[in-house]
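> run fold Bifunctional diguanylate cyclase/phosphodiesterase
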Amino acid sequence: MVTDGNGGLSLLEQYGERDLCQVTGLLNMMQFMRHASAHLQDVLADPLTFMYFDIENFKSFNQRYGFQQGNRLLRYVADLLRETFEGNLVARFNDDHFAVATHSENPADCIQFIHERIRVYDLGLPMEVKAGIYHPPEDVTDVALIMDRAKIACNSIKNTYDLTWAEFDPAMEEEINFRSHIIRSFQEAMIEGYIEVFYQPEIRTMTREICGFEALARWRDPVHGMISPGVFVPVLEDAHLSPQLDLYIIERVCQDISRIRRELPSWELLRVSVNLSRADFRLMDMVQAVEDVRLRYDIARSLLNVEVTEGAQSDDEKFLQGEIARFRAAGYEVWMDDFGSGYSSLNNVKDYVFDVLKIDMNFLRSFDTNPKSAIVIRSIVNMAKELGLHTLAEGVETEAQFEFLREIGCEKVQGYLFSPPMPLDKAIAYCHGETAQVKVEPLRLGSYYAEIGAINVLSSEAIERRGSPEIGDALSLAVLEEEGGEIRYLYQSRMFKMFLQNIELDQDSVHTPHYERRKRQNERMIARMMEEADRTGREVYTDFITRNSFNSVRLRLVTRDVDDTRAVFLMATVNISRFSPEAGSMQEALNQIVALYDRVDLFDLGSRKLTQLYRDVYEPNYTQEYGHFEELVAHYAEEKILPAEQKLFKKFYSEKHLRAVLEDKAGREEVAVLFYKRMPDDGRMLRLHHLVPFRLEQRDYVISCVQAINENIITAVTAALAEDT
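> ok
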């Protein structure tokens, strides 16, 4: 190669086949470096700009279309480079990597031109080209070093969507040197204990008790100080050293558990979550490797949870699915870590079987400033519950965040609100002994709380239907735990708290008249309902009327603990206030009561007509036209009400009584009465008939709601009330 009269490049030699790339006809890497080196050593030659090109998505292109089409794309790129950098050094280094040495004063414009042509090459698979640019100073003539720096610049913008090229900056090389230090020092760091295990508590939202730890790697380097795991973990993954790191952490965790068993035999052990990189599974049999470590220290599988980084999808999805299945079959819980941090989150949930979904902390970082964050988190928790996954949210820093997560049913949290990651001794002090800041959840209750956590409080059907009747579209929910005769709330939805406020049993009502009496009555009623639900295994329900509202309560057993000393019940309630703003909307009233009743009828006091709003299949459907609604009431009484009660039934539904109820602000008129419905074969069913009066657009209405009543519960409630009089 010689320079032309203008100081440019001119290739005058004839090359043999071994000097050229067999696919593209460009120079190979060795010939490129030889000619570039000769040019740099020519003191009369003009300075060169070096570029390193990388085609992104080329591997996917090959997989979709085959190697023949892949080679065709490489030749297309080679022709583009020849055309754009005519008369300059152009080479294919390897795979989809190309190099250029040019005198061009506008290399960025040339790169953009090539990028635009490659991007439209295949509209079905977006193709991108990235390029690194390096302008070597006069004292740098080592072509290998020059191309390394151009490659460093190119790699600095990989996986970005808005950058096509980058120029080399010395800081990039400092990063490369730091990465090299991490790799060189890794073995020594493990031997000398520079890499430590820190533990961050996992807190159960229902109890605010600690239920586990996550084990996290921390590197105290004698040269660089504390190195963030966000820095050294990706470096070790790229160097295929992540299995060694993860197994080292697991071994340290097992050592710590063994130490605790020896030194603190009375302390309740906690589960520890350990992290495995997806890259680990490609490099060794991680299931067997973890088993070997566990057996060496005689640690139960139930004490170790395996967290797999969410990450991007790879070529070995089927293999990884099988490895996760092996872990679960062996008895480990497998958690998806950092859900939402990658672009394949939903595919991972769809294609893999996990036990727990960990919501990435980035969702909470904008919680206070971006209302959309709460919507997204709520949707994630709801989706997880529908798929049978348990949930844990990372990065919880404020009480507002914690209360929101508890309200939507997220089962566990971790974050600086409770504690940062800390060394073992501080972790023990955090939850054991006189310095303990939290209570410890007994290990044996893990499955018990898992069953409770499976309740989806965001669903219109909070628990699976197993027969009739069931808690259906409940407006408010509470989870209650009974232990030794004591009852406590593990969970209260926002609507349930409003229910307690409406019946004057919330904290703000403590100083109101007769609060203690109301509280005792309510506790006795709930205790008797719990006893009935526990004995029968079915949902039980009751209705009661307070001064200003009608209230319906349903309750069922969820689970018992392994020692049969605790029981958890799910309660659903409805409160309909006679004179609340909600009662002014017919649609709102119907939404609240249709799911509860056998039939619902609307009495229009203006037209004196009756409209059937809802009826179950066992209720008669009146299609015949009637004049005054009292005619239909009389017909219904003769057909369905016991003879001894027919007269009272007609009086209760008379126009005179309905108008009196509508005008009654003092609560003196009867709005709820029990009548027996005649059943086939001389049977009978006790039902509550309840009236809800309201005005809408200056018209007068009364809604009649009819619901079957469990006579056993009525007897129990009556007895409870009698005990307090």
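The longest strand covers residues 683-696.
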